[in-house]
Amino acid sequence: MKLNNWLILLTLWGPVALCSNEPVVARVNGVEIPAFRLERYFAEYLEDQGRAVGNIRNPKAYQQLRLKALDALIDKELLWQEAVKRDVVISDAVVTEQVEKTRQAVGGADVFARKLNDAGFDEASYTEYTRRELAAQKVFAEMTAVAPPDEQQVRDFYEEHRSEMNRPAQVQARHILIKVPQGASAATIEAARLRLVEVRREIIGAADFSRVAKSRSEGSSASAGGDLGYFSKGRMLPEFDEVAFSMAPGEISQPVRTAVGWHLIYVENHLDEVDVTEEQGFAMVRTYLVQQQQSQARLQVLEQLRSRNRIERTNTE
Questions:
Q1: Which family does the entry's similarity section mention (predicted)?
Q2: Maximum Cα interatomic distance, the chain, rounded to a whole number of Å
């Protein structure tokens, strides 16, 4: 969990007296989730997705996201109650360490105390909240633990996907093309080259390559500012490849002649070749398979908790 969220989430759990008169949106085994918890958690839920409440214009989309946030809040309560059932204990040392990390992350003791006070809590309440959150995280980790994948499964997956793990060297580039017809005279060819020389001089003089490409290039990528994306050797014409892969990022080539005309090449980035060894490949596969198993386990555990506990949604408007 991001450190900044520890203070935000503090407002999701507080003394019952503070919310006894609040509307209730759900109950988990009789424990009420008041509306203010949902509203405050909803803002954080959207933040984690890179969104903001004010940016959601569609009422249906807003309601769907709010329901998902309520589901997540219910899951948090389920995990905390499961931790209590299992007598999960978080030591004072671990709690104190987490509280101190949060204190430093928000700007030190004074800022930390002010934020707690603004939220209507003291450090003792926040410490207890932290213990609760860590216990829920611990029980979830225990319930979703998976065994290492079978080595034969690792090897089979590696053999099936090994080609996808390797990547040839790639270049990200833009270009400006001045076309030259097949069989053109020497004078026509030279005139096209000189046009590109002038274009290059314009760009070196501080013009934007992308903008110039849109107005001057005769290639199909002109509307995209000459953007060719990333490509490996062999995808472009041989003369183009040879120059592009010899250039440094940020460099603009001299005019390059190919079968279709003259090109001005601007290299934006290089990606080195990635050649994964068998040992590295096996390690990557093990990590991937464990992540897949854990993702499935999380879904199954939460579904089991929801099915064997009493959940009431009282207000989803």
A1: Belongs to the PpiC/parvulin rotamase family.
A2: 90
How large is the angle between the packed helices 3-10 and 109-118, nearest 10 degrees? Answer: 30
Gap between the Cα atoms of 129 and 127, Å rounded: 5
Share of the chain above pLDDT 90, in %: 65
The DSSP bridge partners found for residue 246 are: none
CA distance linking residue 164 with residue 70, whole number of Å = 39
What is the tally of structural domains in the chain? Answer: 2
Q: How far apart are CA 185 and CA 188, in angstroms?
A: 5
Q: What tokens were used for 113?
A: 């105390």
**Domain-embedded: residue 101:** yes
Sequence length of the chain is 317
What are the pLDDT digits (tens) for 221-279?
999 999 999 999 999 999 999 999 999 999 999 999 999 999 999 999 999 988 889 99
Per the CB < 8 A criterion, the answer to whether 68 and 302 are in contact is no
Q: What percent of the chain has pLDDT over 70?
A: 90
Q: What is the CATH number of the domain that holds 128?
A: 1.10.4030.10
Residue 260's domain comprises 170-271
Q: Cβ distance 123 to 116 under 8 Å? A: yes
| In-domain check, residue 244 | yes
> 283 lies in a domain?
no
- Name every residue whose Cβ is closer than 8 Å to that of residue 170 and which is 6 or more positions away in sequence: 230, 231, 232, 270, 271
Shared domain check, 226 and 306: no
Does the pLDDT at position 309 exceed 70?
yes
Tell me how crowded residue 149 is: count the other CB atoms within 10 A of its CB: 17
Place of tokens 């700007």: 107
pTM for this model (two decimals): 0.60
